[in-house]
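User: Second chain of the day. Same drill as before.
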Amino acid sequence: MQVSDIFGVGAEWIQQRSMAARGELENGAPIIFQPCQSLDNAGVLLLLPSLIANGLLSYKNHYHTIEKVFYSLDFTVLLLCFMFLSRIKNPEQLKHIVSSEFGKLLGIDKIPEAKRLRIRLSEISEQKKADEWIADLFQFWLGDKENQNFFFYIDGHVRVYHGKKANLGKKHVSRQRLCLPGTNQYWINDSYGNPYLHIDATVNEKLLEMLKSEIIPQLELQVKGRISKEMLELDKSLDIFTVVFDREGYSPKYFGELWQKRIAVITYRKNVKDQWKEDDFKEYQVKVDGVQTKMFLCEKEIELDSVKMREVRRLTEGGHQTSIITTNKKLSIESIAIYMFSRWCQENFFRYMRLEYDLDKIYQYAVKEIDKEVMVVNPDHSKLSYQIKKLSEKINRKRAELYKIQQENCFDDLDNTSSYEKKQAKIIAQLETLKQEDDNLRAERQKHSYKIALKDMPSLKRYNQLVQERNQFINILKMICYRAETSLISLIPS
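Assistant: Same format as last time:
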């Protein structure tokens, strides 16, 4: 039997590996760097200072070391970061690289195989410290800013699930234009796209529900004490922080409730029907994502659901008016436009992370039960609503067909009238049948409530959820890597 049969191809540190196998290696394998030339992926070493500056080593405050193993916790964390920065997106892809070559980047004889790395990830996730770590990093990334306003961008992302163990509700995946089973993640980023954290929805909660139950309470906790009470009392127009999101979170009544806590909102206005006079718009020079652009803007004070807000509209060259509403009383009209239209930096973040970091990769497929009292959308109600929608589309097509025949009859010879009448009678009969079917479906839907408790769902269809601890740990490392890349890019002259 050869050494490679025991420790794998490329293993050179036989003594240390033997000690680890006997449980005699106290602090993991020693780190010994050797002179190398033309080493693949060596450029990632340039990012090591940036990784540390963005809080990578703070995991030591939350995770305890894994004792008497060859690949220690410190080594595993750094290996994962170097993997992601080298675009090795998951442990399975380690099979396609030379383990001894990549090991030289980390001062070791060879990196672990995919199976060993997955085992180490399991041991780390068993400590269940990811929530503590990300909360600590949130404070670290906010920095020592006091008496300053904060802007948080909030948007949802669907991580599609292709497994069979979990029974997850279907979500609309806009990039695929399909409804697929998956998990909803709501990400919080800054105005440059740098991530702070993400919160996983339990079942199918919408953005407005998550704002009320999870996101705003989390942000209040993180920003607590950063704006002094004296300043808030002296300046009644001062906000603690501002959240920016799209129309999914639209609720003027809730925006009023948030302002009572001195939390401001910037979002798009829904159901805009009126048009402002084009003469009211003025030209402004606005810098969005580093690009100077010309915008025609106008501002008015409005009241929605008894809540006073500022409305800013942008007039495009085609005459379209994009409406933005905000409860922030301090921002200039240009700043409101900048912060709203900079929301695309978060969309760019999602795209970049999906393509470069495999953001949708699921690392843990274990499932857990959900509280059976949780209210969810009734699948039977949704199914009937979908059938009614499709039937309505069919009815509208038949009505359009009937209208076309009636118009042709008006302009055709009288000799052809009987032929047109037969066609009309046939379509009218079909419409009556479809209308009766529509009435039956609507009557059936009334028997099913829109929402039901989870316990009332059939056991085979009852929703559960994925255990997120390992996925959360990996996402934190990816967030640190993204921030490290961004920090390095900012040092390079444009």
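The chain has a mean pLDDT of 89.

User: Great, on to the next one.
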